[in-house]
Amino acid sequence: MGSTPDLGPPPRRITVDAAQVGRLVSEQFPDWAGLPVRPVAESGWDNRTFRLGDGMVARLPSAAEYALAVDKEQRWLPALAPRLPLPVPIPLAKGEPGAGYPFSWSIHRWLDGEPASAAGLSDPVRFALDLADFLVALRNVDAADGPQPGEHNWFRGATLRTFDTLTERALTDLDGEIEVGSARDRWKSALDVPWDGIDRWFHGDVAPGNLLLDGGRLAAVIDFGTCGVGDPSCDLAIAWTLLTADGRRAFRERLSVGSPEWERGRGWALWKTLVTCARTRGRADREAVNARRVLAGILDD
Fold it and tell me: Domain locations in the chain?
């Protein structure tokens, strides 16, 4: 995978409004001109998303770094979709810069569902098994020629050491507020566990907002902007960030994950959670409280 990259400063994000999206659609896809454009309530971080009519969604990267994923999704989602047991976004068109918007963008088929939450799961163990089945199918897709970790996916699928500096910075910021010694021991253990070097497909951001529920059941998986091939342990972080203890056990068993990969997966969850805890220090909102809850679960598990 080469040397550890410099992740650099956070992306410089831009805003996009519905009128601008309407102009882009009218200029580039006249057959869809006049369809109503409505912002999606939970638009996400990497992309600004808008309903286009009833059956489509326009996804516009919010920064240059996120725009690197557009061509990848256009190339690989049509190849992955038939091999997966749940619906995933299907690209219908690729847009180009215009109307004051500077990046390539996409129109996908709209998928119904509500973002996953612990309260929304009708059966947490069934959800865990369905998610594991999806990831098993994804991992079994031929990884030849798949996108290797890089800037296009923030180095998901690469070594956890990519994120060592960020993690140590978060631990320093949180000293005196959490069990830093225990957290650092967990982190170092994850760093020391080797990967077998066999490329497998991964989603890269298996998070509640990218898992859609219908009637409390897992109904679709969206946002493949961080997908690629490499070490798939990054997809295991959800075991600590959303699943119940029983669900976590069922998830691991269905995926047939051994101790080394499980330890690396816990490392991914720990990195993400520590960074969130550091960023939300002094706050008492839902994000801050949830991050502290997840961290406690990771350290106690």
Answer: 18-111, 115-300
The CATH superfamily holding the domain 18-111 is Phosphorylase Kinase; domain 1 (3.30.200.20)
Q: Is 175 exposed, middle or buried (0-12, 13-18, 19+ CB in 10 A)?
A: exposed
Cβ atoms 124, 247 nearer than 8 A: yes
Strands (E), 64-173: 91-95, 105-109, 114-115
Interhelix angle for 259-279 vs 286-300, to 10°? Answer: 150
pTM above 0.90, yes or no: yes
pLDDT tens sequence across 15-24 = 999 999 999 9
- Amino acid, res. 181: G
Output the CA torsion sign for 1, 143, 150, 273.
negative
Q: What is the CATH number of domain 115-300?
A: 3.90.1200.10
Of 110, 129, 86, the residue nearest 220 (C-alpha): 86
Which residues are CB-neighbours of 104 under 8 A, at least 6 positions away?
A: 61, 67, 70, 71, 94, 95, 96, 97
